[in-house]
Amino acid sequence: MKTYQFKAILQENEWISPAFVTVSKKGKIKSISNQYKGNKAIININGYALPGFQNAHSHAFQYAMAGLAENHRVGVKADDFWSWREEMYGLALKISPKQLENIATMLYAEMLRHGFTHVAEFHYLHHDLNGEKYPKLATMGKSLIKAAKRSGINITLVPIFYQKGGFGTAPSIKQKRFISSSIEDYLALLEASKKACKSYIGANIGIGVHSLRAVNSEDIISLAKNESTKDLPFHIHISEQQKEVDDSIEFLGARPVEWILKNVALNNRFHLVHATHLNKTEVEGLATSKANVVLCPSTEGNLGDGIFPLQDFQNLGGSWSIGTDSHIGINPLEELRILDYGQRLTSHRRNIFNSKLEGNSGNFAFKMNLEAGRRAMGNYKIDFFEIGTKFNAVIYDADYPLLAETSLNNITNTILYACDSVAQLATISNGEMQVYRGVHKKKKKITTSFRQSLNELNNR
């Protein structure tokens, strides 16, 4: 066992200061107290401990192209999500299992460096370079689990059902690595992925559909009702682009969220990613259903998706989490700020991150993302730090000048709105310190293998 001492630790309704956290050899919390009665040496970290951030939406392989879609030819028609997607397809056709592992390991180490301790990996790069199934169906998923284990992050692997090229159209050659032609094929992949998760104590499984346009509607309904998967978190892209909404109306006779509200018994295990383009009825229906929305502000901004109607959704009791999607940004503080400021700019109001019970914007944002983000991982616990659970925390430096003179009541707001990664002191995952003062403990090896894979891909 080991005991960490912090200047303070944030629980859901209070700060404990000073804070002593004793952790078992398996990384589970044995005790939390403002006093230490043991006689063994403690690990003194002069910082404020908050629950580790939850990254509820990730496409790990896309990190290899972060920043590469910003060269635009002068005089050519406007670039948009659909042209960006063609660039992404080009990358997807090249990556080997080992390259995926190395890219994801680097990405996950960077997530830890920024305070994420959990990631939901929305994974659809399933097959080999020819589009054929690997002899071991979850080969690519296994690469992601290995990456999580190497970096020390917790992963919820969400193998994605991807069947069509678009509404009523066959998949293109560029999508050949994604495709499960039937629900039976997908369930076989899911089962193989579930078995692969057993190789790492920090891994578990989720279920997902790429989008309404990518899977037959009757298969989406069937999968959502499947008894063997009813306890798994269910992820789906939806209403990210206006074109998708228009195509859905033409093909299904309904807007995407309108359709899913009518045809799927949504509850809090469902996580609708982006949900950018909603009308008032859809916002109300989604909030009432208790389904969660996953917002990825840096990617949504980079792709020109639009702005989710957060304020209306939140006022109706809707729950949301954040993800980093294409990883053009990886800092949870930036994701939360972009989300908040986008709403302030369009509403001309400042009190966006608040509820009837919580007027502290920082506390509200951290709590909302933690609870909905955990649900995205299949974890329904709401206690910030609980005896018997793994100790996952991000620690901010109590000696950072701005924090050093700040009261506990203003710490979360100061961190969220006025700090960057320099103020972060450490990240602890499953009881182990993975990052200290901005350096991952395996940085050299992880960086070397990552650079080697980028060199092999030769896309930068």
Provide structural commentary.
With 460 residues, the chain is an alpha/beta fold. The chain has 15 helices and 18 strands. The strands form two sheets. Strands 1, 2, 3, 4, 5, 15, 16, 17 and 18 form a nine-stranded mixed sheet that branches. A hairpin with a 2-residue loop joins strand 17 and strand 18 (439-440).
Spatial separation of the terminal alpha carbons:
45 Å
Q: Outline, from the CA principal axes? A: globular
CATH topology of the largest domain: TIM Barrel
Number of domains: 2
Name given to the CATH architecture of the largest domain = Alpha-Beta Barrel
How much of the sequence lies in strands comes to: 15-25%
The SS-based structural class is: alpha/beta
Per DSSP, the total helix count is: 15
Query: Biggest β-sheet, characterized?
Result: 9 strands, mixed
Q: Can you tell me the CATH class of the largest domain?
A: Alpha Beta
Percent helix, as a range, is: 25-40%
Cα radius of gyration in angstroms: 22 Å
Low-confidence runs: none
- How many strands in all? 18
Q: Calculate the mean pLDDT score and round it.
A: 95
CATH superfamily of the largest domain, by name, is Metal-dependent hydrolases
In short:
The chain has 460 residues and is α/β, with parallel strands linked by helices. The chain contains 15 helices and 18 strands.
Chart the SSEs and their pairings.
Layout: E1 2-10, E2 15-16, E3 19-23, E4 29-33, E5 43-51, E6 53-58, H1 81-92, H2 97-113, E7 116-123, H3 139-151, E8 154-161, H4 183-196, E9 203-205, E10 207-209, H5 217-225, E11 234-238, H6 242-252, H7 256-263, E12 270-274, H8 280-289, E13 292-295, H9 297-303, H10 310-315, E14 319-322, H11 332-347, H12 361-376, E15 393-397, H13 401-404, H14 411-418, E16 424-429, E17 432-436, E18 439-440, H15 443-457
Parallel strand pairs: 1-5, 6-7, 7-8, 8-9, 8-10, 10-11, 11-12, 12-13, 13-14
Antiparallel strand pairs: 1-2, 1-3, 3-4, 5-15, 15-16, 16-17, 17-18
Helix pairs in contact: 2-3, 2-15, 12-14
